[in-house]
Amino acid sequence: MYAKLKQNVPLPTLIFLLVLTLLGAEAIWTLTRATPAGIGLTNDSIAYIAGARGILSGQGYSDIWLATSLEPITHYPPMFSLVLAGIGLTGLDPLRGARLLNVLLFGLNTILMGLTGWKMTRSRVAGLVLAGLFSFNNALLYVHAFALSEPLFLCFSLLSFLAFAFYIERGRARWLAASGVAVGLAYLTRYSGLALVATLLVALVILGSSWRKRIVDSLIFVASAVPWMAAWLLRNRLLAGTATNRNLDWHPVILDRLDLAVYNFSQFLLPVEPWRRGLMKTNAIDWILLLLGLGILVWLLVVAWRSFFKPQTTSRPEPLAFLNGLYIFGYLAAIAFSLSLFDASTKFHQRILLPVYVSLLILSVAAGTWLWRRHSRSLQTLVVVFALFFLGTSAFGRYNTVAVFSEGGQGYASWKWRDSQVMATLQALPADVIIYTNSPPAVYAVTERPSRTIPTPTDPVDLQPRSSYQRNLEQMRGDILAGRAVLALFNTSDIEDVNSMSDIRDLTAELSVLEKTGDAMLYGQP
Predict the structure, then answer these.
(1) Which domain holds residue 361?
(2) How many CA atoms lie within 13 A of 134 on its CB side?
(3) What's the pLDDT tens digit per position in 270-317?
(4) What is the CA radius of gyration of the chain?
């Protein structure tokens, strides 16, 4: 069997695939070692895990972590929860299933990055370098260490790009259809999958040899991708009367969010903290981002112009590099559009910037390979120095992150929440006692009890005043004073910022403090 395999597949390719598999296995081992207390948990994590539990229990994809009438989940696309529910059919709870899934995805995404690098450059070494840059990167490990949908979204995105590249190379429609299906599944994982749709459609128009081919290819792609999206949006409209649970309103991206994006990019680029701080003080990161963005944009415009207007005299650009360049701008435009018109609460955290990081890694390896093939000793030395530098600093940053993460769980999985006396008291309350809190996801994560959100004068999503605030406040206070409910406040030192409240006395006036530990307080009737 080995002789037959060796005959069909060259030995260097076998060695490449073996080393790439080992890199994927090492990524799996590293993330497993970094999460001994379980996968990290955020508010969104609880929505996905609770959604999967709702599916398994027959309650549907609904907000079972809230102590209100069950409502269909529309804000969070279902694919991550569906996969967790599928794992749950084996008897593994979705909380543990999320760790298993993301650990495996870290290894799989590492392998897909290696295959992407090989396909893009026709260089096995470049493929391994790209896989190493991905698996060693501190920011990418961080995102995979939380129960979030981004790793699964990245998997579908990479599959869609690879399938598209095979279509461009071989011209078989089934590859284009496969790319569309992967994009549809990516959309069911994250709404920003719309950026993938736009990116691939633009690429089909630019790379097409004639208008007939452009139209036919676009129709094939749309027919493969859109039904998945339409089915989900139709479900939301029928069950909840809304497509995505977001209202149209104008709240443009403001400077502090861009500052956070620059800060997070600096951590991705240089995870050695003293060096990173030095760069930030000189505004070097801002200039790097500006020059990098302008360089990619100019390259895209030149390539697109030649490919579209002079297809007969211009060689076709490498599709994977071209796609990732387009995707950077398409994705950032989609996020800015969403922040400005639909969701004012989203910030440029590492998870939001993940697709940009990955595309930048792919483009950096493409650029490094191009420089290497100029056959200039000085350029080749420069490529080796940069590759070793970024691999080394990335490995250093990942080592520190693993050391910190392995000491305990992250987010709601940390001991701060698990050992909270207020949480223990909530868990021991009779089942008919209502829990009001400023953090229902945290309460559900620790106690698995549903709770109600405290009234807030401003909607945290669109930042608009709530006309029902006083009515909801009176109802909550009435329930507590009658002994039917308790009020649990966490992170009380910064509750005003979290809930946009000028004064928490509206919530706690005339209520007795039942328990206070750290920055958590429990109010109710003695």
Answers:
(1) 2-405
(2) 40
(3) 888 888 888 777 878 888 888 999 999 999 999 999 888 877 766 788
(4) 25
Shortest CA distance to 326 belongs to which of 86, 161, 130, 506?
Answer: 161
pLDDT in tens, 313-357: 667 889 999 999 999 999 998 888 777 666 656 677 888 889 999
Q: Are residues 161 and 307 in the same domain?
A: yes
Note whether 388 and 516 are same-domain residues: no
Q: Which of 378, 405, 432 is the last residue of a domain?
A: 405
Asked if 444 and 315 sit in the same domain, the reply is no
DSSP state string for 210-258: SHHHHHHHHHHHHHHHHHHHHHHHHHHHHHHS-SSS---------HHHH
CB atoms within 10 A of CB 11: 8
Examine the domain organization and report whether 476 and 331 are in the same domain.
Answer: no
Task: List pLDDT tens digits, range 228-263.
Answer: 999 999 998 888 777 666 655 555 656 566 777 888
Please state, in angstroms and rounded to a whole number, the distance separating the CA atoms of residues 491 and 351.
23
Q: Is residue 17 in a domain?
A: yes
Structure tokens, 445: 């994560």
Domain shared by 254 and 331, yes or no = yes
Alpha carbon separation from 24 to 11, 134, 358 (Å, rounded): 20, 10, 16
Q: Does residue 331 sit in the same domain as residue 479?
A: no
Residue 506 clears pLDDT 80, i.e. is over it: no
- Residue 202: C-alpha distances to residues 199, 222, 359 (Å): 5, 12, 17
- The structure tokens 């994977």 sit at 320
- pTM for the complete prediction? 0.91
Domain identity same for 400 and 422: no
